[in-house]
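To assess whether the prediction recovers the assembly geometry, we first specified each molecular entity separately, as shown.
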Amino acid sequence: MTEYVIRFLVGGVVVSAFAMLGDVLKPKSFAGLFGAAPSVALATLGIGLYQHGAVYAAAQSLSMMAGAVALVVYSIVVCQLLVRGRMRALPATLLSIVVWLTAAFGLWALAGGQA
Amino acid sequence: MTTPITFSLSSLREGRWYEYLVRFALGGAATVFAGLISSRYGASIGGLFLALPAIFCASATLIEKHEIRRKHEAGLEGKRRGQEAAALDAAGAALGAFGMLAFAGVFWILVGRSVTGAFVGASLAWLVVSMGAWFARRQLRVTGQRKSDPAMSRSR
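The predicted structure of the complete assembly is given in tokenized form:
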């Protein structure tokens, strides 16, 4: 239980710090870089290293590469839904999660991923 | 070439306290979720969720909301402007995701040798690749505009 409380607090602080940095920077496309900052990764890899060691964290970071490529696809789809589909931000970002999941698990499987 | 990036603390005043609370809670929840998936299904599947765009949903929605609020204050509807602002943020996130890819790659290479080196090297890789991608895209757009409007390039 304590582990998850620590995860929640560390994750919340790191994510908020990157989000606030994105808030104070302009132009918006530059601030958007911080929307894809490895904030959750910094917190999770740090805790993973402390608890399970380097091999565990290396396995997480290897799969993270597939997740990051899926994030490129996701961001492009969100951008198109907003500009061409004229959707609002919340439905566009939530619907596109399906695209992220498909791309991430598809790439992971293609790379011969094993649980 | 002048630096097109500006820093303005006044943007923080546009946010409401509960918006910061929502982002904190979402960040914490995403980190707990990634940990739970790793514990249940293993580090390999859990690693995918280190790049989950959970926070991006909140950020894009807030950007759209702030832009609409700003336009409402000026007596305009602002819906389209809000969508465009969120789309710009998404375009930036696409470039930032290349930086995240570099982060993961460098971390994977270095973590077996040095933990500190892995965190420092991966963070630097994220910074260099995402900013490099942003500047390269900007340069391409400027060059494209000059080609389509030679009169503009002569006047610069």
